[in-house]
Write a structure and sequence with these properties.
There is one protein chain. The protein is built from 20 helices and 15 strands. With 596 residues, it is an alpha/beta fold.
Length: 596
């Protein structure tokens, strides 16, 4: 029997049950954790017992999983179950290019409920329809107040806390670019610069000494706060990379960047308190200034993120030692990927959940980002969401060891009766070396006055980013061969899969095509620049697959999401296709002249 998250205690009883009678009893069950429940199936009836309505709800979701596997006759069983973490969350990026349809968000909430998550956040920089600032969100098909309120109401019914999450310090690219260039920490007017994914990822930070900055932040908080029932508000305040490098450089040299950061952070938190909410914030910046942690308001909750397999950068110990509440925040590792890096994600999520439990974390918030346009589709991300939910509920369960989780997830999530699909996908992803961000920079516009440090640098002879050549020709050639071989095996398996959501299969196929095409592009670039004379996949064939990839990605994108900023992905894919096509024609003509 497959159940995710895996229950704490399971006792198999004799007999089976055909009765559809369900009895719900609110009563103590010997566990004090909110959401704990007891599910008992006897030959005559099914009984839910819990001390609260949330526990009864969780019992119902567990029963639904059992019914799916035993539709005619239920096995008799007794389950006593409770969560490890009181807060079990999922964090979904809806700002880096992809804005989901309301239907998709409601389905996301249902999925979170199915796997006993009780906390959901949507990351927003500019993709909300702010009343006074249409210049900021135009062209991005933003979420509206009505959509957020609808989602919030459904989340409440599903015992999920929908928490607002808005940038308030760093990651202010679109605001500064389109309307408030004077609030840029850097001493540059960027209002006329072309759009750049890399730029949006890394820059821009608000000028923390300009009174208008905190006025704008306060306005944002007070506008969106009434849309959410939650008593929490995530102010983000992460990756303030430009802080103290421009207008406030002299002040930073005098008092320190940490002082600039904490003083502005406290102003933001005061605005959250005015709006009758408790602030959450990413802990990466304050973690660099441990002596200043004590100045953070005691009610604020730090979010300790680390997406590495080895947990290289976690600040969990610092937060625990400070006595402040904190959540551990792993990731599904799908950003900038055509298919998530399941191997890294599994280690990251399972290890972080155990570390957080050991150090007394108040919650776990599993993240799904959308770097460089958000090419990562929803279906292949689902196993990472469910793994995070399962670890938040039962972190030490043997069922979550990779060798056990992958077969279960393959059957339950991907409709693969063999239980092998997720493992094969993990192996295929592990072989790839070509990166989407390197390819995107081929076609990414950049202003002439951009500081050279903002990019990895361009090869003057080819006008191609140097990071296209980070790995050897042989490495990409070998990776492509392995991906093609894996894809053939996976395709045969996909033909036999029957998931609840058929779109998931096409999303996996698009991801596999993306892996292959990225490797081919890298190999073609080696040939174009003369860095190899070895035969590579023809530019014409690669161009055709690039155009096919764009067409298929556009189709799955439209089914789950608003148009939002898909046009930027299309521009890159088709732009690179044109470059390869022209380069291939030039090579053929040159070769023809040499033969003559």
């Amino acid at each position: 029997m497959d159940i995710l998250p895996p229950p704490k205690r399971v006792r198999i009883l004799s007999g089976s049950c055909r009765s559809r009678r369900i009895k719900k009893i609110v009563t103590p069950i010997g566990r004090s954790e909110a959401g704990a429940y007891r599910l008992t199936i006897t030959p005559t009836e099914t009984t839910f017992r819990a001390a609260d309505a949330t526990g009864l709800f969780h019992a119902g979701r567990t029963l639904a999983q059992i019914k799916q596997q035993f539709p005619a006759e239920l096995p008799c069983i007794d389950i006593l179950d409770w969560p490890d973490y009181p807060v079990r969350g999922f964090y979904h990026d809806v700002t880096r290019g992809k804005v989901p349809k309301l239907k998709t968000l409601l389905e996301l909430a249902e999925t979170c409920a199915d796997y006993k998550l009780n906390h959901l956040e949507l990351y927003i920089e500019h993709t909300y329809a702010y009343k006074r600032h249409p210049e900021v969100w135009q062209g991005s098909d933003p979420l509206t107040a009505e959509e957020i309120c609808t989602l919030d109401a459904r989340c409440a019914e599903l015992h999920i806390d929908l928490v607002p999450s808005f940038s308030t310090f760093g990651h202010f690219y679109t605001w500064i670019h389109h309307k408030f260039p004077e609030l840029n920490e850097l001493e540059r007017d960027v209002s006329g610069d072309p759009f750049c994914w890399w730029d949006r990822q890394i820059h821009y930070t608000l000028d923390c000494q300009n009174p208008r900055s905190i006025e704008l932040v306060r306005e944002i908080i007070h506008e969106v706060r009434p849309l959410f029932r939650s008593r929490f508000f995530n102010i983000c305040a992460d990756e303030t990379f430009d802080l103290g490098k421009g207008k406030n450089k002299a002040l930073a040299e005098k008092v320190g960047k940490g002082r600039l950061y904490v003083d502005f952070l406290k102003q933001i938190m005061a605005a959250v308190k005015e709006a009758d909410a408790i602030p959450l914030f990413w802990g990466d910046i304050i973690g660099a200034y441990p002596e200043l942690v004590k100045e953070i308001p005691t009610e604020a909750i730090a979010l300790d993120w680390d997406y590495s397999a080895e947990l290289k950068h976690t600040k969990a110990q610092l937060m625990a030692d400070s006595g402040r509440a904190f959540y551990v925040c792993p990731g599904v590792c799908g950003w900038n990927e055509w298919i998530p890096n399941y191997g890294v994600a599994h280690k990251n999520i399972t290890r972080f959940a155990k570390l957080g439990q050991k150090l007394g974390a108040a919650g776990i918030l599993n993240t799904d980002w959308g770097d460089f346009g958000h090419i990562n589709t929803w279906g292949p991300t689902l196993p990472g969401l469910v793994l995070g939910a399962s670890c938040a509920w039962n972190a030490k369960s043997a069922a979550l060891v990779q060798a056990n989780f992958e077969p279960t997830a393959s059957r339950m999530l991907l409709g693969d009766n063999s239980g092998k699909l997720l493992g094969l996908l993990r192996e295929a992803v592990a072989t790839h070396r070509a990166t989407w961000n390197a390819v995107s920079l081929i076609q990414q516009p950049r202003a002439k006055e951009y500081p050279s440090a903002w990019f990895d640098g361009f090869d003057a002879a080819s006008d191609l980013p140097n990071n296209l050549f980070r790995h050897s020709f042989h490495t990409h050639f070998t990776a492509l061969a392995k991906i093609k071989k894996s894809s053939q095996s996976i395709e045969r398996m996909l033909a036999r899969c029957h998931p609840d959501d058929p779109l998931l299969i096409e999303e996996i196929r698009v991801g596999l095509l993306g892996l292959q095409v990225m490797e081919e592009i890298h190999l073609c670039c080696y040939r174009i620049t003369g860095k190899t004379k070895r035969p590579v996949p023809g530019a014409k064939a690669t161009t055709g697959r690039l155009r096919q990839l764009e067409k298929r990605l556009a189709a799955v994108w439209r089914k789950r999401n608003k148009p939002s900023e898909y046009f930027r992905i299309r521009e890159v894919l088709l732009g690179v296709a044109d470059i390869l096509q022209k380069a291939g024609e030039t090579l053929r003509k040159t070769a023809g002249r040499k033969r003559n």
